[in-house]
Amino acid sequence: SAVISQKPSRDICQRGTSLTIQCQVDSQVTMMFWYRQQPGQSLTLIATANQGSEATYESGFVIDKFPISRPNLTFSTLTVSNMSPEDSSIYLCSVEGTYEQYFGPGTRLTVT
Amino acid sequence: AQSVTQLDSHVSVSEGTPVLLRCNYSSSYSPSLFWYVQHPNKGLQLLLKYTSAATLVKGINGFEAEFKKSETSFHLTKPSAHMSDAAEYFCVVSDQGTGGFKTIFGAGTRLFVKA
User: Fold this and answer.
1) Could B51 and A99 be called an inter-chain contact, meaning their C-beta atoms sit closer than 8 Å?
2) DSSP secondary structure string, B56-71?
3) Pairwise CB contact (< 8 Å): A45 & B103
4) B47 contacts in chain A (CB < 8 Å)
5) Which chain A residues are Cβ-neighbours of B34 within 8 angstroms?
6) Which of B10, B19, B34 has its CA nearest to residue B85?
7) b vs e for B83-114, b when ≥16 Cβ sit within 10 Å of the residue's Cβ?
């Protein structure tokens, strides 16, 4: 299994600013995933991050808005740039296990 | 291509009665299937998973699910609902296709349990 921590756990930000979310895993993993869960919605995959390469973004998500870093096999960051109220969501980091994905506790972002 | 359809956006049951949450999937490969539960303001918790072993999968808290390939279904059941089961449930499909490892979440089913 993998234990994942995220910082911050929650934040309230003003529109137009940026927030960087950190994800730390207790073991080395090849692939890390970032998800968004908008209020009352399911999880949507934002991007897949492999160490040493550019993140792969899903349709509807772009690097300028959600830049991702993956400097090593246990850490990743997701930045939510130029925020608007529509970005208010829970952002979750996830890693792939042998037979399942493990999820972090999430970062609850509110943009005012 | 993968897809997951949870057939009910919400289900309401009385405490002590059976629970059925329905999920249909499509996958071009041999998928792994999961059910996750999310209580209000809590993180995701894995209930159970199917990974090509026994088709009837038992999970935590008395939940189980049966993989039916012919029906492309993976419905979640519990014989007797408890108030603490009230939560959001997500059916999830994962497979390793030509595009790489992919996981798709269903839209979710909100379970209400009445006293």
Assistant:
1) yes
2) EEE-GGG-EEEEETTT
3) yes
4) none
5) 100
6) B19
7) eebbbbbbbbbbbeeeeeebbbbbebbbbebe
List, as one string, the DSSP characters of A33-60. EEEEE-TT--EEEEEEEETTSPPEEPTT
Tokens of B42: 């809590």
Q: What is the least distance, in Å, from the CA of A98 to any CA of chain B?
A: 10
> A43–B107: do the CB atoms touch at under 8 Å?
no
pLDDT digits (tens, 9 = 90+) for B64-97: 999 998 999 999 999 999 999 999 999 999 877 6
Task: Determine whether the interchain pair B43/A105 forms a contact, defined as Cβ–Cβ distance below 8 Å.
Answer: yes
- pLDDT tens, residue by residue, A7-63: 999 999 999 999 999 999 999 998 899 999 998 888 999 999 988 888 999 989 999
Angular region, B52: left φ>0, alpha ψ -120 to 50, beta rest: left
Cα–Cα dist B5/B49, whole Å = 17
* Burial classification of residue A43, based on how many CB atoms lie within 10 Å of its CB (0-12 exposed, 13-18 middle, 19 or more buried): buried
Q: Which of helix, strand or coil describes residue B18?
A: coil
